[in-house]
Amino acid sequence: MNRSQLVGEMKKRVFEANLLLPKVGLVKLTWGNVSEINREIGAIVIKPSGVPYAEMKVEDMVVTNLEGDVVEGTMKPSSDLATHVELYKAFSKIQSVVHTHSKNAVMWAQAGRAIPAYGTTHADTFYGEVPCTRQLTNEEVEKAYEKETGKVIIETFAENKLDPLATPGVLVYGHGPFTWGETPQKAVENGIVLDEIADMASMTEVINENCQSIPDYLLDKHYFRKHGATAYYGQK
Amino acid sequence: MNRSQLVGEMKKRVFEANLLLPKVGLVKLTWGNVSEINREIGAIVIKPSGVPYAEMKVEDMVVTNLEGDVVEGTMKPSSDLATHVELYKAFSKIQSVVHTHSKNAVMWAQAGRAIPAYGTTHADTFYGEVPCTRQLTNEEVEKAYEKETGKVIIETFAENKLDPLATPGVLVYGHGPFTWGETPQKAVENGIVLDEIADMASMTEVINENCQSIPDYLLDKHYFRKHGATAYYGQK
Amino acid sequence: MNRSQLVGEMKKRVFEANLLLPKVGLVKLTWGNVSEINREIGAIVIKPSGVPYAEMKVEDMVVTNLEGDVVEGTMKPSSDLATHVELYKAFSKIQSVVHTHSKNAVMWAQAGRAIPAYGTTHADTFYGEVPCTRQLTNEEVEKAYEKETGKVIIETFAENKLDPLATPGVLVYGHGPFTWGETPQKAVENGIVLDEIADMASMTEVINENCQSIPDYLLDKHYFRKHGATAYYGQK
Amino acid sequence: MNRSQLVGEMKKRVFEANLLLPKVGLVKLTWGNVSEINREIGAIVIKPSGVPYAEMKVEDMVVTNLEGDVVEGTMKPSSDLATHVELYKAFSKIQSVVHTHSKNAVMWAQAGRAIPAYGTTHADTFYGEVPCTRQLTNEEVEKAYEKETGKVIIETFAENKLDPLATPGVLVYGHGPFTWGETPQKAVENGIVLDEIADMASMTEVINENCQSIPDYLLDKHYFRKHGATAYYGQK
Lengths: 236, 236, 236, 236
Hints:
The structure is a homotetramer of 236-residue chains. Chain A has 236 residues and is of the alpha+beta class. Chain A has helices at 3-23, 81-90, 103-111, 120-123, 138-159, 184-207, 216-226, and strands at residues 32-38, 43-46, 62-64, 70-72, 96-100, 169-172, 176-181. Chain A has one domain: Class II aldolase/adducin N-terminal domain (L-fuculose-1-phosphate Aldolase, 3-Layer(aba) Sandwich). Chain A is built from seven helices and seven strands, in the order H-E-E-E-E-H-E-H-H-H-E-E-H-H. A seven-stranded antiparallel sheet of chain A has the order 4-3-2-1-5-7-6, with helices on both faces. The longest helix of chain A is centred in the C-terminal third of the chain and has 24 residues, at 184-207. Chain A starts with a helix and ends in a 10-residue tail after the last helix. Chains A and B meet through helix 3, helix 5 and helix 6 of A and helix 6 and helix 7 of B.
């Protein structure tokens, strides 16, 4: 396929993944955005800013270069674009980023806590706790808020020596979740999982205030059942 | 458009906004009402009292003057009309008022607490905490309950020096939420946001009993990303 | 109408009210039943026992006399029939009884607590707290469980000097809610309200552990806005 | 019917029961599986591993012998097959096993607690608390994880002297629920009940931290209303 065809396919995938967000209950009103990158052709496709999902069309998807400068489309891109761009630069193996204000993940982000790996539902997707960034400083917020949001995520992964493929999501303190994946569909699925395990984790603590994270050997077992060379879940 | 056409348009908007309430899950049975005002033609349009949503027709919408006296329609207006009238008198820049018993907002109203601004989902719509009124006195309830409900909201905004455009909603102690906006659609959306952030806030406190409101600079950033001359969210 | 026609109308109303239960989310599987009484013709119509809602037909409704003896129909009546019969005998002004295992009401029944009147949503339907019965004794359970369930409800109302019209529902300790009303539709609506206020009340206590019931004058105001000679809510 | 016809019927029932899981809200994405056994013809039918529910066809169901070796079908069976096989070997009277990650049951599994019998909704299906297994050891997880998951369930039932027909489900510590029954439909229904009573139980404890299990005589009454020779619920 030529560049135009590839971008056309990206637009379709990004459009459909955006529509999936309200359908699966991760997004109310216009609170969410999905993007996809193709590094070889130098293109990012992202949802336009603040357009109601019911009115959005596939041709409204905005195309930018790898720096986030709009190169195609008449609409403004999602205001969170700069965060996506930073993540694509730092995490070279991810092809799609999703941001939502999904309720349960936001609760943990507002609480400023990483989500412990309390069970195998968590371990099937996230290899260890889902981290929460530090609060952004006044200077960071005023200078370049969305870009700095990306940077604090990257800082969190660097400091905790996390692999973004093994931990495909994060909580931004006081804000909400970002997830990512190899495709828009997969990045949305990781957002579904993140919200579900956030919900499970908060009530787990209510049911047993002394609850413990699962042991490392069970975390390993479940994560590697589904990921990597030794995976045996699914049809591949 | 002449007065009759303008009122006809108002009726349609108010009718559709009322139907939106049960559809988005803010209202069960007949627990909610939406109104719209046009100060220039001296008209308020509001839902009739206690009519099931499934049976309600656009022509059932009741038209009153700016004092709340019915001038058109055979049905009784919502019993909360007097509250709407007070809010329209005091808050001259709002064009629509919505009242519901949406679950999560009611929980905070019953708890008698303002909702702290724990995150950006809150700050995107409410510039600071969502206030909760004091309890009405016996005299106020017996004298003119619905009118006094409006007055205690106005008192709460005056005492806390709040701008009703920057804080488009309130909790009435022991009762429930009122929200408002420039259009019925927008006032309902503010009701959706209020219920969602109420839900998020209560579990935020369960997850971290020492959780903190977001810093003012982040509140400013998110609120002014979407509102005022420096807004850059959306397509305008 | 003759007796046959009246019973036919009762069957339709009872059938439709039973179908409403899963539709509004009060019932899973076969956990619920609705009945209606016509004391003049000496007939009670009730749902058959354990029939899946999807397969149930209007002609499956069971007709009994005022003692609960089946007089028409080939199916067994709901196993809770004896509870309904006791309530109809003691509460002479109610025409329909509904029993469900609706989640939030059951939580309070299992906790063994009456639901305090924390707000106007509660006061619009229940004039004061929703009572919870004592635990049944071993003897009562073994002797005539369903009949004794009715008796302990009646005992609870007598001891607390409650009017079943002003308190159209109850929690049976360790079991779940019964509600009633003038029609099957109204009894189901009271079940909807009871479950909703149960949900609101539990989180109200989580949000503010020192929350208070609303003052009597507000309880009076809201209850009598909707009920009795001075009611002004609705179109009558 | 001959073997081929019997297996064909099993495939249909297993397929339909699997589709029921997301429909009733017990399963997100591909997190669940249902199987059925016919010991006489030596066949187990189970869902294929990791296939999206929307794409799954009845002919994708995998057939194995009683040891779990695939004998028919081109797809890999659910990775949890070995757990099902162990349960079928030890619990000779069950014909179907269901595994999900339903939210409320998982919360208790993650909390590592058995669910107390707080009410009759629980007692109608589970004759006593729903047990939770111990944590699997490192050796067990590494040796034969899914088989050992079955074994720890069996160990839990043996140690607590539980009858799998009277306690048709279990929580695996840090993982989630397994339920079973005489048919796939019944095993799914037991999964619905388990998730519902898990939800009820956690909030029961929030509403009353000193809540008590129902007395044995009430547990007996409700369980034997629906089960065994003295049952009188339903139409049989």
